[in-house]
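Retro notes, item 3 of 5
We never archived the inputs for the heme C complex last cycle. Fixing that now. Sequence and ligand:
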Amino acid sequence: MIARVIVVLSFLLTPVARPSAADTASPVTRASGAELFNPHCGICHLQMGPGTIMLGRRLGPDHALLDERLDLDAAYIKQVVRNGIGGMPPQTRVDLTDNELDRIAGYLTRPESERKPHGGN
Ligand code: HEC
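Structure as it came back at the time:
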């Protein structure tokens, strides 16, 4: 009984102890977002993935590859990941923590100056 209360209390206190999320993500934070993007999103959102193909069909080829787009904002990305959209299943905090999602959103919204120039195809 007491143990249960402690478990509940520590659960309630966890968000306070957690370092605040990186809305103002640094270049280093965004780099680690790139490493998270590949395993969590890349299976569908890299070249030839179903996400890439569906977005290309729905929004046009220049909107197909998520990590090349300049029009996404972090709030929209997080909303889509938590709720899913069309053929994309939602990812819960068990799949991807808020901190990891912040880092992925930071990576996908990184400034143009941090992007590699497109070398041909
Ligand atoms: C199982 C495949 C799959 C995975 C994994 C996946 N997605 Fe998607 N995603 C899709 C599909 C398919 C669509 C297109 C849905 C549609 O247009 O109906 C999509 C669409 C999106 C969109 C909407 C873009 C727009 O312009 O409306 C965003 C943002 C997005 N995904 C982000 C992510 C992120 C970030 C991750 C990783 C955390 C991720 N997705 C993982 C399949 C996936």
